[in-house]
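User: Fold this, then the next.

Assistant: Folding the first:
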Amino acid sequence: MRYFVAVAEALSFTKAAVMLHLAQPSLTRQIKGLEEELGVVLLNRTKHQVSLTNEGHSFLIDAKRLLDLALEMVQSVQRMTRGEALSLNVGYVTNLFYDLLPPTLASL
């Protein structure tokens, strides 16, 4: 996912490879393997240009979201390990559930 996002954002295998500290042929193979696994062409390639297909645009949005979620997950467990407090937001309707709120909060 990271490799695809790098290529899609740079629109260049060469620039993405430099950014990722990889050899360009290795990056090209990784992206080709991803496309084969998905059964979809994500990038249009010519000698001088790389562009996203419609499927590539869609996949890029989801790949970025997935990478952001993965980072959030890592940071969350790291905070737990450090014993940092997490926040909890509670919403309730005053007139209907007020009697339930104090015991519920106490149990947390």
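Now the next one, as you asked:
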Amino acid sequence: MPKRSMFSVLLVALAVTVASTTAFAGDGAPKISIRNQQFTPAQLTVPANTKVELLVVNEDGLPAEFESYDLSREVVVPGHSQVRIFIGPLDPGKYGFFNDFHQQSKGWIVVRHPAAD
């Protein structure tokens, strides 16, 4: 197979892989807001075995830190701004997170298999 054709096949395979493993990308990303130093919603459900783009919006004027030992994530979210975090693919279960600058603020990512049709 010529090199150019092999490159095209690999490029298509990569595009299919990325499309099949990324959920909620772009404007449809699940969102967690930080308001009055609390996470809203405090529990978010996402599909199992899928890479998910999570939007964390800090509506407060003070910085916050989205931190999770379970998810191996630690991201500072400046006041009145937002960050995007990729999590997964994850096994079904419950994964905790908290605001390291206000540790009473806690939440959960619940990972479930999609319901069978």
